[in-house]
What does this fold into?
Amino acid sequence: MYESIRHELLVMRDELKQSLYRNTASTNPQVRQYIQDDLDDVERALLKLEIGVFGVDESTGAQIPYHKLSALPTARTEEEIMYH
It folds into this structure.
């Protein structure tokens, strides 16, 4: 069901890793931290896919609609999607 989202997350992970490691010496520490935070979010989403809890709102326990997850696959809550 989430195969296209999983693929997108894998691509995002690769791009973020490349960006993080390619620019380690020359990038502002704050920028590196933003990249690392994004990478952590992607890794968390991939783990949730692996263990079968992807798409479950971490605040309410409700299922986040697929179309919303497609827009922001790293979302932890449905509310996060509304404010992103």
User: Anything to note?
Assistant: The radius of gyration is 14 Å. Residues 17 and 39 are 7 Å apart (CA to CA). Helices lie at 3-22, 29-51, 66-71, 78-82. The longest helix spans residues 29-51.
